[in-house]
Amino acid sequence: MCSSDPTSPPASEPVLVARDVRKTYGDFVAVDDVSFAVGRGEIFALLGPNGAGKTTFLRMALDILKPDSGELHVLGRPPSPQLKSRIGYLPEERGLYRKHKVRPVLEYLAELKGLKPAAARSRVRALLERIGLAEWAEKKIGELSKGMQQKVQFCGAIVAQPEILVLDEPFSGLDPVNTRLLEEILEEERRRGATVILSTHQIAKVEQACDRALVMHRGRVVLYGAVEQIIREHSSEAYVVRTRARLENLPGVVGVTRDGGEVHAGAGLPAAASAASPEQRVVLAPGADPRAFLSALAALDEPVESFARERVPLEEIFIRVVESSGESVRDLLADASRAELAAQAKGAS
Amino acid sequence: MSGRTWTIARREFLATVRRKGFLLTLVLMPAWIGFAFSLGSLPQALSGGKRATLPANVGVVDSAGVLAMSAAENDTMAREDGGKRFVVRAYPSQEAARAAFARGDITSFLVLPADYLRGGAVSEYRRPGSALSRVTGPPWRPWLRARLLRGRVEPGLVARVQNPADGPTYVPDDRGGFKVFRAEEALGTFFVPMGFGMLLFSSIFSAAGYLLQGLGEEKESRILESLLSSVTADELMRGKLIGLGGAGLLLGLVWGALGLQVIAAMAPVFLPPPGLLVILFLYFVLGYLLFGTIALGLGSLVSSYQEATTVSAILSFVAIVPWMVTFSMMEEGTTGLVRGLSWFPLSAPTTMTMRLAQGGVPAWEVALSLALLALAGWATLLFATRLFRVALLLYGKTWNLPEILRLLKSDRAAAR
Fold first, then answer.
1. Which of A71, A273, A299, B232 has the greatest CB tally within 10 Å of its CB?
2. Do the Cβ atoms of A157 and A88 come closer than 8 Å?
3. Chain B within 8 Å of A97 (Cβ-Cβ)?
4. Residues A257 and A124 in one domain
5. CB contact under 8 A, A81 and B222
6. Are residues A130 and A248 located together in one domain of the fold?
7. Does residue A164 share a domain with residue A133?
8. Where does the pLDDT of residue A34 fall: very low under 50, low under 70, confident under 90, or very high at 90 and above?
9. How many CB atoms lie within 10 A of CB B371?
């Protein structure tokens, strides 16, 4: 775990701070002493398998549920009805008035967030234009495709230009074009100054878009920190080098993997002997100076096509960390995918 | 009350009154009642109003020889209510009467056997009539009574035997004294309370039904979590109560105004005093508060529109039973049961309204009934609000009472 202490604060002023927040349903502990902070203007990922406690936590932040104990501050004070107009929410449980038209429903949601009717009208018009649904404004929501309904619901979350945007699986059910569109709008929201809290199972998306992340499992925080820091801390001293040179005897090298097999250092082969494949994974000894290795590499006769520190995907780290708590994350993720597919199938029917 | 509550109330009101179902109920209900009433007078209207005055012929076979009727004589008989009149013809034998019946000369005939004075048996031969004509009794009994006495006792006595008492009846008035009871008022005391009770029942339960069904629809479409990220459960509940209460009130006002127009045109004496209309309004508000909050509490436990419709039907049934019991007992005056039902909150709105329309209800009883109703509404509101708050986001569950109580307990713990 990187950290679960809010004393490792975000770079910017925190807009959400949780200290030892706990929520139980009878004997079941849904959120177990969770502590973390989210900074203004961040895109923050809230990750975890199904049943990890993410939705319960988000509902507490939105003042839909009350915590049993602990301290929770949103925009500088405990969650309250007055804060609701400053937070936009796209819940995992999708739902809209299917028998009603797109424009009036969005105007209603905007008015509930405190916009005056005229402002709501103009904001909805602009938003539908931006998201490519202007010509569907007077259609009943039930007549739209699932992807379009998803976009309408996304509009409902950002319609009042909230300071905090909480999005639970915002990309589910969207094609790549619309996924890109939503990513662009999220970036626009961030530039406007909004903080985005993203809850998703698409961990690759987190790696690409989020500044910091928190992983929950069985109600507890198991990983927390900047995405890059998490990846760095969970990566070994390994480098991926594309060259036909043999690297086993270079300074600091303790192991090389190439052509699908491992070659141990000090084998006494000529340094410049060709390998079948140019891609090699090089592991340096703990404390070895990578700059010395790089200098020796540059001095070889064989050209070096690329050199990079090996990057462990966040998804792999997620799996490792959660599995270390004794659970098969692959099974959990498979369950999550199955649940998502079932939800999509239900939505489509 | 927050602006968000009013936004919800406005949206719920407009979404409901724009529904085709609401508009049909608003217009079709009075149209249907008007049609049903006009249907009764349709035959008369079709015959240009002459039908009732055309005499139907009745035959009599007097084997006992007690009626002193000649074959040439045409007597007349009329219903006791002064309605339909019949021409009576004597026939010498049952065969002759049967032949006349078969030819259509007469529509029915009576046979007095030779031992009539000893046994009193009279056989009536007729085509099957309506159920109502059987219930009201054959019109020939008073005629037979008069005919038996004719020529045997003085005419004045015949008239008194026929109608032994013909004077005013006095009933209690609102000032503690008595007033003359008019025959037409009997009709009024029957239909006007029924109308008021029906009006109140329909408007309250239409609104409560819309509440339940709307909530069922929202639970089914899973929109509630989005709404609760913008408003509190309490605001949502209050907004729905106000908005759909407005829709129910609109129904009641339109139907009530139409009913008053009809009463004003047909029998102005039955127009209720303005004070009664104010009390009626209070019963609507408090009755709706009670049943509306029950509907919302139950609605938070359902998972779909279909379940909500079922619960709505059960709720209406629970409320209509005391109303029907009261209605059936009204003719016996205010019995202890009727008085109790008019105080009991679940039946008070309809039962007390019917009693008020009949008149003679002491003011303290009205005040007590309203106070109990308000108290029950307030208690239900508190209970339903908590239930609404904790159960709104729970789906697909079959509830039992211990589970509901446990849920409420967890809400109280979290609120501390």
1. B232
2. yes
3. yes
4. no
5. no
6. no
7. yes
8. very high
9. 13
Over residues A217-267, the pLDDT tens digits come to: 889 988 898 888 888 887 777 888 888 888 888 888 888 887 767 665 554
**Cβ-Cβ contacts under 8 Å, A84 against chain B:** 229-232
Q: Residues with Cβ < 8 Å from A199, sequence gap 6 or more?
A: A45, A46, A47, A54, A55, A58, A92, A166, A167, A168, A169
Based on the structure, what is the number of domains in chain A? 2
Q: Which residue of A has its CA nearest to B390?
A: A65
CA distances in angstroms from A172 to A209, A311, A339, A340, listed in the order given: 16, 26, 12, 8
The answer to whether residue A159 sits within a structural domain is yes
What's the domain range around A144? 14-232
Instruction: Return the domain boundaries, chain B.
Output: 55-164, 186-415
The domain at B55-164 falls in which architecture?
3-Layer(aba) Sandwich (3.40)
The span from the CA of A70 to the CA of A90, in Å, is 25
Residue A338 lies in a domain: no
Determine the residue among B7, B230, B403 to mutate to test chain A binding: the one whose Cβ has the most chain A Cβ atoms within 10 Å.
B230
Q: CATH code at A213?
A: 3.40.50.300
Strand order in the sheet with A195-199: A87-90, A164-168, A195-199, A43-47, A212-217, A220-226
Quote the CA–CA distance of B300 and B212 in Å, as a whole number: 9
Do A184 and A164 lie in a common domain?
yes
A241 in any annotated domain: yes
Q: What is the pLDDT of residues B70-94, one digit of tens each?
A: 877 778 776 655 556 778 889 989 9
Q: Do residue A47 and residue A124 come from a single domain?
A: yes
Shortest CB distance from A84 goes to which of B15, B229, B406? B229
Residue B134 or A224, more confident: A224
Chain B residues whose CB is inside 8 A of the A108 CB are 7, 11
Helical pair B233-266 and B183-221, crossing angle rounded to 10 deg: 150
The reply to whether A349 touches chain B by the CB within 8 Å rule is no
Domain boundary residue, one of A232, A262, A293: A232
Residue B384 pLDDT > 80: yes
Chain B contact set for A156 (CB, 8 A): 226
Considering the domain architecture, whether residues A181 and A44 belong to the same structural domain is answered as: yes
Contacts with B, A 266-325, CB within 8 Å: none
- The nearest CA of chain A is from the CA of B188 a distance in Å of 45
